[in-house]
Every structure is written in structure tokens, then in C-alpha cells.
Amino acid sequence: MDATTAMYVGQIMHGLAYGMLLFLVASGLTLIFGMMGILNLAHASFFMLSAYFCVSVIHMGGNFWLALLAAPIITAAIGVMVERFLLRGIHASGHIGELILTVGVMMVIMEAVQVFWGTDSHMISVPPALAGMVNIFGLQYPLYRLFVIFLALAILGLLVLFLFKTKMGMIIRAGVSDAEMVEALGINMPLVFMMVFAAGTWLAGVAGVAISPLLSVFPGMADQMGMDAFVVVVVGGFGSLLGAFVSALFFGLLNSFGIQFLPRIAPVLMFVFMVLVLSFKPKGLFGERE
Amino acid sequence: MKRCFFLLRGVLTLLVLGMLVSGAWASDALMDRMADFDPSNPVIPEGDTIKIGHLNPFSGPAAMNGELYHIALHWVAHDLNKQGGVMVDGKLKKIEIIKGDTMSKPINAKKAAERLILGDKVDLLWGSTGSHISLVCQQTAAKYKKIYVSALSISDSLMDAENFNRYTFHTPWTTSQAAKSLAYFYAKRPEKKFYILCQDYSFGHDLAEKFKGYLKEFRPDAEIVGEDYHPLFTKDFAPYLEKVKASGAEVIFSGDWMPDSVNLLKQSRDSGLNLPFANMYMDDPITLGVVGVEGSAGLVNANQYMINDMDSRTRELNKVWHELHETKWEEPYNSSLYVWPLGVVASAINTTYWMMDVVERAGTTDPEKIIETWEGDKYDSFAGVLEMRACDHVTVRDTYVSEFSSPTKWFDNFSYIDKIVIVPSYVVEPPVPEGLDRCKK
């Protein structure tokens, strides 16, 4: 592979890897919105929290794999508590209250990480099994980034199987369409809501661990990822998992090739695209809700 | 003849012994004063004190900066307070440090500065990271006729004809000095293909422009093979690094600071790109610890201060600081970031001693007297001679460049400062601001 081709193939791979990371964060956000109608502004904070848990697990003698297992579960457990003891209580007062509450949760998490982990940046290394490069048709590509791509694909596969092949998945899909009707059929919707919120925060947690070997863990990392995930969900369509996937991949590639060809305006390209999509399709590319 | 020889030998022996004893005494003296220094719980003096308002972010994502420099200020305050304080208005007064949280926002910086001036009635203001924040601080200080020591932000524009005010004194190096130091270093190096990768805001662009200009001056055959400016807090540097790989660059020039600096360095090493970075902020133990000995070898760092053991004062500071870190300090100051008094922190300590020395020589905290004393002042600091240029209040100083290697005496888990190239102050003297009438005289 000549140098120019290698560069373009490299950019495609980087775009895919970043897109998959975006998908991991955005999928939880869109799942929670689709099911509960809540725009969870604390979602990226859960992502950050999980990254901090990952750092702690490793500092306490664990390894990356244990962190990948434990940190998202702990994050999801906190998500469950937030849903059960905070969100559920104000559900009746409407979405504005829920929105404000999630902003409050976001601020609490932001301050909490500074109290418990300090203000320093933390970094963890790529796990030894995933360190180094892999040869893809002559292109030397970091193995860890390839792992991120396959991890996100595996999670997407599991989500699809869960949503389309299980009874609970059917209930959730029905709930996305009409939660009140599903509740009228005798389904315990508060419990379903709680499970969906847990699943959403778990997904954010997986993304938080996956990104930790690439990005320093510091109190501002939620801001870094939150806005991008939000744009992915808006463009893909609120509540649409397929939309989040397509949109995340598109923005990953847009980021890579934007930097390649239009570096000065690359950071704003995704926002320009969001404005265009919203102008012509206010529900997003695959969304059913405005 | 023989008698003369013995006499000379005796005198020399006494001299050496004297130096050793005084060195040991000095070290003990500093340790005696600092032994109970706890940066997490500093002693706050009461009564009639000299109040210094410390403007920096103490909350939000950049709160680390506040902590970083708070230890520097408290170090100096503790040391001088242990010596009885600073003689002003005919009596010894202790130094009190009061925080002003800028939250990294100009509006908050203005409020914090006003609260310190009007509420806490501070005598001097000291800060702040972020040139746009520091500018607000110096404007607010000038409005209330208070001395502001611009100790951290390095943009040349802070003291240009448009922004200069006589109440502000700029004690760190400047963007010009940083860029020129690195260009000077590469004048005698084999590398000549540079890729510029800086943060996309005024500082990044300004630094890159200056580096390109000075490179032309010192190394006319050098080539800029690529140039990119990434957003602050970039998550994924891989697309930029892919371009660097394809460009044939031999050096990446970057002015990135944390967290971009650490992410850029780490992601480059993880993607197999082991080019040296010519940098200013890739010198902290957190960043370097992540990439280890091999990943940090060959980095070229320019700084306004570099840890060394070349004279008794720096040896003393290093020894006492390190011993306290290893034995006494608690969170967050027991982390690897504070193992030694490094770069920006040591520089902040250095210039704060200068500031207090000026106050003592002025004999008062009256701004007009301080201005009179500080303008044109020369101070023999532990980081070389510092001179406050009278016309624009910018500090003229030597700067330092080093190529990291291993092993060093400072750290064993990454490469670090080895031989230090001193760039003399006459080479890196900051340009005199155009259009500033005071400098035309």
C-alpha cells in the first residue's frame, strides 16, 4: 500500500473507531429518550464517572478487563438510583422538571469526581494484550482502536438481539411507541423505565472505559463527549438506535476526512450538518419524535 | 615556598569547609522553616497581614491550575512568614494568601478580582492562567489602582501598546521567548522538517507564527511540511497524526497544554508515531509517565525554568521539597505531579520571592512605591537573573531547552531533562511593543 492510500485507509479506520465510540455514548442517550422521553443531560457525566471508576479499578490492582466489567455495572447501579429516587419522583411534573433534574445530577457528578479523584488528569495504559499495531492489508493500525470498533459492533449486535428477539425488547419497543398503552396492558412500566435507564447508563459506562486508554480522564471530559453525542442523537433521530449508529459512523468519518481536507472548519462540520438535517427533517434521519 | 604552599592549602581547605558548612546550614535552615509546611492545610496568619489575592480557577474542569499554583504561593508565604514576615510600613507583616476563583471565565475573573480588592482588601493581586482571563484581571487591577502580578499567562499581547497598564508586572516568559528558544535550539540540529500542530485559538496561532518567523532567522533551510490547528480539548488526534505520518516530518512543533498535550503525546505513541515533539508543556510527570521511558525519549522541551542541581539554592529547594513530598504531604499534593519543584511551579515560586523582595525593598504595599522599585529592577533568582524592563513591565531572562533522555536523577519511569541548553536573555529578549509611547523614550 503506498503512503497516500495508507493515509486514506488510516483515516477511514480512525473515522470508524471514533464513530463507534460516539455510538456507544449516543446509543444510551437515544435509548433513554426513546423510552422515557427524557433528554438526559447527565448522560455524558455517567460516561465520565465510569472512566473514573475504570481508573480506580486499575489503581487498586485490577486490570482493564476487570474495569470493563465492573465500571459500567457500578455506573448503571448509580443510574438505577438516580432513576428510582430522583427521576421517578418528579416524573408526574413533566419533562421540564426531569430535564432540570438531569442538569443537577450532571453538576453533582462533576463536583463529586473532583472531590473523590481530585482535579489532576489520570491516564491508563492500553492493556498489554491490545497494545501494539496490527497489519491491515499493509496498513499498520493500533490494535486497541480495532478492539473499540469490534466492541461497539458486538454491543450493537447484543442490543439488536435484545430489542428484537426478547419479550423485554418487545415491551421496550412498544413502550417507545406508546408507553401509556403498554402500561394499560399490565406491564410494570416504572420497572421497565428503570431497566432502560440502567441500560443507557451502562452503555455510557462501557464507552467511558473504552475511551480511557485513549483519552486523559479529567473533570472536563464529559463536556468533550456530551455535545458530540447529543448531535449524533439529534441527527439520527431521537429514540432511534439505527439512527444513532448511522449518524455516529457518519460523524466519525466526517471528522477524519474533515481534518484531512478541510482542517480549519472540520470542528464545525457536524454542527452544520445537524442544522441542515433539522431544516429538512426535524425528526432527524431515522426519528419518529420531534 | 613550602610554607606558602601549606598556608594556601589551609586557606583553601577552610574555604571548602566553610562552603560545605554554609550549604548544609542553609539546607537545614530551609528545612527548619518548611518542615511543617502542609500545602493541603496551609497556616493562615491573622492580624495585620500583607494580603495577596490569588486569581486562578479553583473549580470546574481547570481547577487543577488553582491547586498547582496555590502550593507555589503558600510555599513562599510559609517560608517568609517563618522568617518573621516582610518588613513594610516599619513593621514585620506576615503574608496571607486569599483565593479568588476565576472558574476560567472572564466574567467570574472580574467578580473575583473585585471581591478580593473591595471585600478582602488585598494589597496585591497574583494570577492567572489563560491570557484572556489574565487580561481581565489586569484591567480590573488597573481600575482600582492595585498591583497585579501577571505570573502565569504568557501571551505577548498582554503587555502590548493596547493592553499595557503600569499596575501590571509580567513575570513569566512570553510566547515570543518560548518560540524563539525552540527555534534557537534547532539552529544547530540535523532535523529540518517541521509539522506544526497547535491548539486553535489565539495562543496556538501566535506561537506557531512566531516559531515560523524565528525558524527562518535561525534555520533558513528548515521546512514547514504541514500545519494544523485542532480545537481545545480534542478527543481524537488520530486523523491529525495520520497527516503528520504522511508528511515526512522529522519534528512536531506543539504548544499544547493539558489535557491536549498528554492526549496528543499518548495517542501519537500508541499509533506508532515516535517523532520528537518540540514543546513547552510536555514536561509534567503525569504526561510523561503515561508514555514511559521510550515514549518520552527525544522530546525537546523549552521552559522558563528547568530543575537542576547546579547551585546551592536549587539543590536546597529540590532537597527540601522532595523530602516533604515523600514524607509529609497529603492529597492532592502527594501525587507524582509534585515530586519535585518543576517548571511552571518552581518558576512561580521564584518570581513570587522576587515580588516579595520588591515589596520589602519598597518598604510598603503602596502601588506607586512598588512600581517605582520594580521598574528596571534586577533580581538574582535561583533561575538566573531576572530583569523587569521598565518601559513595558516585561521580564527579561534566560530561557532553557533540553532534549529528554534516560536515565536522569529526577525520574526513573520516563525520560527527562538531561543537558540543559541555556538560551541567553540577550538572544530571547522579548520584542519591545510597537506603539507603546513609554518605550520610545
Topology:
The complex is a heterodimer of chains A (290) and B (441).
Chain A: H1 3-36, H2 43-59, H3 64-90, H4 95-117, E1 133-136, E2 139-142, H5 143-165, H6 167-184, H7 189-211, H8 221-236, H9 241-261, H10 266-280
Antiparallel strand pairs in A: 1-2
Chain B: H1 2-34, E1 49-56, H2 63-82, E2 86-88, E3 91-101, H3 106-119, E4 124-127, H4 131-143, E5 147-150, E6 168-170, H5 175-186, E7 193-199, H6 202-218, E8 223-230, H7 238-247, E9 251-254, H8 260-270, E10 277-279, H9 285-296, E11 300-303, H10 312-327, H11 343-362, H12 367-374, E12 378-381, E13 384-388, E14 395-396, E15 399-403, E16 420-423, H13 425-428
Parallel strand pairs in B: 1-3, 1-4, 4-5, 5-6, 7-8, 7-9, 9-10, 10-11
Antiparallel strand pairs in B: 2-3, 11-15, 12-13, 13-14, 15-16
Helix pairs in contact in B: 1-10, 2-11, 3-4, 5-6, 8-9, 11-12
Describe the structure.
Chain A: It is found in: Cell membrane. Chain A: One of its GO terms (cellular component) is plasma membrane. Chain A: GO terms for molecular function: transmembrane transporter activity. Chain A: It is a multi-pass membrane protein. Chain A: InterPro entries: ABC_transp_permease, BCAA_transport_permease. The complex is a heterodimer of chains A (290) and B (441). Chain A is an all-alpha fold and 290 residues long. Chain A contains 10 helices and 2 strands. Chain A has one domain (18-280). Chain A is 75% helix and 3% strand. Chain A has a two-stranded antiparallel sheet with strand order 1-2. In chain A, helix 2 runs antiparallel to helix 3 (64-90). Chain A is globular, with a radius of gyration of 19 Å. The N and C termini of chain A lie far apart (46 Å). In chain A, 50% of the residues are buried. Chain B is an alpha/beta fold. Helices cover 43% and strands 18% of the residues of chain B. Chain B has 13 helices and 16 strands. Chain B has helices at 2-34, 63-82, 106-119, 131-143, 175-186, 202-218, 238-247, 260-270, 285-296, 312-327, 343-362, 367-374, 425-428; strands at residues 49-56, 86-88, 91-101, 124-127, 147-150, 168-170, 193-199, 223-230, 251-254, 277-279, 300-303, 378-381, 384-388, 395-396, 399-403, 420-423. In chain B, strand 13 (384-388) and strand 14 (395-396) form a beta hairpin. In chain B, helix 1 (2-34) packs parallel to helix 10 (312-327). Chain B is globular, with a radius of gyration of 22 Å. Chain A binds chain B through residues 3-4, 6-7, 10-11, 14-15, 17-18, 111, 114, 118-123, 125-126, 131, 133, 140, 142, 144-145, 211, 213-216, 218-221, 223-225, 228, 255-257, 259-260, 263-264, 267, and chain B through 59-64, 66-67, 200, 228-231, 233, 235-236, 238-240, 242-243, 245-246, 258-259, 262-263, 266-267, 270-272, 286, 289-290, 331-332, 335, 337.
